[in-house]
Automatic annotation (TrEMBL):
Residues 1-22 form the signal peptide. Disulfide bonds join 253-263. This is Matrilin 3a. It comes from Seriola lalandi dorsalis. InterPro entries: cEGF (IPR026823), ECM_Assembly_Org (IPR050525), EGF (IPR000742), EGF-like_Ca-bd_dom (IPR001881), EGF-type_Asp/Asn_hydroxyl_site (IPR000152), Matrilin_CC_sf (IPR036337), Matrilin_CC_trimer (IPR019466), VWF_A (IPR002035). SUPFAM superfamilies: Chicken cartilage matrix protein (SSF58002), EGF/Laminin (SSF57196), vWA-like (SSF53300). The lineage of its organism: Eukaryota, Metazoa, Chordata, Craniata, Vertebrata. One of its GO terms (molecular function) is calcium ion binding. It is found in: Secreted. Residues 68-243 form the VWFA domain. GO terms for cellular component: extracellular matrix; extracellular region. Residues 249-288 form the EGF-like domain. Gene3D superfamilies: 1.20.5.30, Laminin (2.10.25.10), von Willebrand factor, type A domain (3.40.50.410).
């Protein structure tokens, strides 16, 4: 029994070695190598891989928070017509997951290749049907991949207040999602840093032959939360649920609150309200019964009846006084009743 143990251990080690060699025997540029690099990056950051593409996964406490959202999409020659249609479906699916509107999320699309074209601005469409129609009309530009120029254009032209971005005082998050399948033909590091410094959060989505180093230079940190990779455009739609989890905000009232009566969501925070008949106390959390000032008003009908009775009584007294009604006592003396008014008062 003991003699067979070393041989078993040696056999297991040989299987493990062959498996390792088979796993890492990859050619440069192989999509699996890019995925392995992405996983290695996640391990180096000390966190487990978070990008499990499960479109069925949702968060019941999750709701879309207001955003100024700009998609920057690569339509260079390397993106085939059928693949570009997949990108458009991804954009339409993303719009469906968001709460869009002038006071909710606003969306713009920047299309690029060797040139850059703003397909529509943040101020152009405030409802889903119009946005999706505009997305369906987008055509690929072909030619090169000027990703840096596209980012610069988005910062200078799409994320401005003139184009529909909300003022900084509104504290509306500004988000850019870049979708590309190649290596940029211009510099992206400096322009991306400028965009991030201006308050824009950048997500980088790489497809197929995308250069992982370029994605990392563009994206915000932590990289494991802002860099995505899919092997083909055929599965890019599956990223929709992951972006929904990332871009939505947790419902503060659902997480927990200390309101005595009613909790009302307000962007990333909440405030308290009271039920009818109560007022909010100075602590802005508890409620007190509203003090009602009661005014007693007599029934006008009762007043009129009382006045009528008083008039009839006064008239009767006047008649008795006028006739000098006499009352004779036992001693024979006469007494004249001159007035009975005081009796009725």
């Amino acid at each position: 029994m003991m003699k067979s143990f070393p041989w078993s251990l040696l056999y297991c080690a040989s299987l493990l070695l062959s498996d390792v060699l088979g796993t890492y025997h990859l050619n440069a540029g192989d999509p699996h190598l890019i995925a392995a690099q992405s996983y290695a990056q996640t391990r180096n950051n000390g966190r487990p891989p978070l990008r499990t593409l499960n479109p069925a996964k949702t968060d019941s406490q999750c709701r879309s928070r207001p955003l100024d959202l700009v998609f920057i999409i690569d339509s260079s020659r390397s993106v085939r017509p059928g693949e570009f249609e997949k990108v458009k479906i991804f954009l339409a699916d993303m719009v469906d997951t968001l709460v869009v509107g002038s006071e909710a999320t606003r969306v713009a699309v920047v299309n690029y290749a060797s040139t850059v074209k703003i397909e529509f601005l943040l101020k152009d469409h405030f409802n889903k049907p119009d946005m999706k129609k505009a997305i369906s009309r987008i055509e690929p530009l072909a030619a090169g991949t000027m990703t840096g120029l596209a980012i610069k254009t988005a910062v200078n032209e799409a994320f401005t207040e003139q184009s529909g971005a909300r003022p900084r005082s509104r504290n509306i998050s500004k988000v850019a999602i870049i979708v590309t399948d190649g290596r940029p033909q211009d510099q992206v590091e400096e322009v991306s840093a400028t965009a991030r410094a201006s308050g824009i959060e950048i997500y980088a989505v790489g497809v197929d032959r995308a250069d992982m180093r370029s994605l990392q230079l563009m994206a915000s940190i932590p990289l494991e939360d802002h860099v995505f990779y899919v092997e083909t455009y055929g599965v890019i739609e599956k990223l929709t649920s992951k972006f929904r989890e990332t871009l939505c905000g947790l419902d503060p009232c659902a997480i927990g609150h200390d309101c005595e009566h009613i909790c009302v969501n307000s962007n990333a925070s909440y405030y308290c309200k009271c039920r009818n008949g109560y007022i909010l106390n100075a602590d802005k959390k508890t409620c007190s019964l509203k003090q009602v000032k009661v005014e007693v008003v007599e029934d006008p009908c009762k007043c009129e009846a009382r006045l009528a009775f008083q008039k009839q009584t006064q008239a009767a007294i006047q008649q008795l006084t006028a006739k000098h009604i006499l009352s004779i006592g036992s001693d024979g003396r006469h007494f004249i009743i001159n007035s009975l008014c005081s009796t009725f008062h």
